[in-house]
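Ticket opened by: R.M.
Priority: normal
Category: complex prediction / small molecule

The reporter submitted a protein together with adenosine-5'-triphosphate and asked that the result be attached to this ticket for the collaborator who will pick it up next week. Submitted input follows.
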Amino acid sequence: MRNSDCIPLLSLKGLNVAPLNDLGRGALLSNVSFDIFRGETLCLVGESGSGKTLTALAIMSLLPAGLQKSAGECIFEQKDIFRLSATERQRIYGRDIAIIFQDPMSSLNPVLKVGEQIDESLSRHQPALTSRQRLARAKQVLSMTGIDDPHKLQAYPHELSGGLCQRIMIAIALANKPSVIIADEPTTALDVTVQAQVMDTLQTACRETGTALVLITHDMGLVGQYADRVMVMYAGKLVEQGNTAAIFQHPLHPYTRALLDCVPRLSDDPERPLLILPGEPHGFYGDRQGCAFISRCLKCNARQICQTEAPRLSASENGGTHHAACHFMNEALASSPAITS
Ligand SMILES: Nc1ncnc2c1ncn2[C@@H]1O[C@H](COP(=O)(O)OP(=O)(O)OP(=O)(O)O)[C@@H](O)[C@H]1O
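Result attached by the on-call engineer:
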């Protein structure tokens, strides 16, 4: 759990990502910064195209060809990972910082047994372990992910269900006892009935080992259930951050508000239609004048300042750690009724 006195395990500072041949279109990610602490679950939430996956890929040095980090630091154990050599970075990825992707079927190697895939990760990062020790660790992480039958190590991915394959991905991520796991929409490809089991498994395993979990999702239901802290992304920027209760009870940014209003709640009037936020974010945002959310904002009525000045992420009058990037966030603070997650 987050202890404000402790040092972050990982600090992302001022990350900008832009196309190599910019052609004046601007950045895809602008000034994305966050800290993550031991044992906490930090949710990165936003609709499709808001920049969540690019943030994860940048941290893992996996940006697609044609995109580059144009600024930013990623501090892990007092070193900026982005400045390390490729060899030094490869020692950290998979051992200290692991990633779980959305679709296990395309992440697992179809021609290797799942046990061999766990073993491969262990032998790469912990060469001193004997094969017997690696097998013991593989069985241990399998059991941590709720698979009690060690014979499953002998299975090929196509012999397992989607839910089991995602548990294997979690086992591979946990194998080397990483400090940080980034999970990019880890349950989106799964049947709803197994989504909760897989999320519970992932969070429990992280809590037990003190691993920090960065959970990327567009699902505010998952955020409410699993996050300790929330970062809301829109148009390649962080527009709100705070602890989960603050975000759900007093959303300061109209985009966060809209995300929450799109979620059905049991207490809702069944006749009331769900909010649909019209429009969609644009692809390139960095050099946009004014607020990137202006064309979809239900609150600002295109006031002058929203058209001319991009709001900066700043602390609310509430104090504490709740920040938002909206010129009128303190009006929202005065008027927003509590929402129960
Ligand atoms: N290889 C690329 N070249 C150019 N633009 C890209 C590339 N990859 C992503 N983008 C753009 O960057 C923006 C952010 O994409 P990203 O995949 O990070 O969004 P996301 O929030 O993770 O969405 P989703 O939930 O759909 O994965 C989008 O506008 C996307 O079109």
